[in-house]
Amino acid sequence: MFRRFVRALGPDIYRKITFPVKENAEKLVKTGRTTVPFGANYTDDKDAISETLLDAACRNAFHLYLYYTTEDDEFEEAHGQCGFVHLGGVARAVTALHNVVDEEKEGKMWLFHHAAASPLDPTSLNSQRVQWPKGVKQANIRPYVGAANEWRYGVDVQWGTRHYNLDFKNIQRRSFQMVAKGFDFHVGQKVGIAVERCEAPITPENVEANVTQEEIKRIYGGQGTVVYTGEITHVGQQHIEYNLNSFRGCSGAIVFLLDKGQPPTVEQRHHGKAVAVHAGGVPGERMNFGFLLTEPNP
Length: 298
Known about the structure:
It is a single chain. By secondary structure, the chain is mainly beta. The chain has helices at residues 51-60, 168-173, 213-220, and strands at residues 36-38, 41-43, 61-70, 75-87, 90-95, 103-105, 108-119, 128-130, 158-159, 176-177, 190-196, 225-235, 239-242, 254-257, 274-281, 288-292. The strands form two sheets. Strands 3, 4, 5, 6, 7, 8, 9 and 10 form an eight-stranded mixed beta sheet that branches. The chain has a six-stranded antiparallel β-barrel with strand order 11-12-13-16-15-14.
């Protein structure tokens, strides 16, 4: 597996930020879903997405292999997701902030070392080295569904730097377009995320649901690239909540607008556009959420 990675960033990109344990809750929201083949990929609702958009979204999605060192000089691996988004003619990588910072886990510091973005559809494109800005600062924690429910990472979005080694032409063809500034979000609009079912097992405990392993396999599918679908259930100032299913390892995936069964507030020109970065499960709620995409500073 390591042959797919680019691992050459080195210790100059270490973060000096302490966060709680890197095990953010993800939620199984819709237990009645069944993931099925659709074209070359998979989805849990063929009535919500066309085969054309499914293929494009899976082509534009990247699995993020994350590497950390510990205080004991151990080398640890974790998994997330990321995507590239067109900004002013340049494709910029973006993921969840919590994927690329130091954290304390089980009484031990995990020092972020580097990340390799591997396309879910590897045709004509190898793993890409992604650099993240030095000195990332923790965002202000913002309550979003009540005083007792706060996301410990604040606005959990991190853009990659403008300068990293990329297969530029292929990356441009495998990037999302961001929805136009001023898009009006509403409850009921349909969204999806494209993720890879990686090696990490999905268990009832880490999706906070009382289901069997057989049900998990039906709901999430086996190995492969899947678009999980749902609807927006709440619109905040900086985030949206939605009832699509996710599992640990989905954070950083691009949330995009689907192209079937949308309300009139989503026009054809909005189909497939990126709107948010998936963060995880809403604390205390059976719902998942992501932070809205806004253009980064130069």
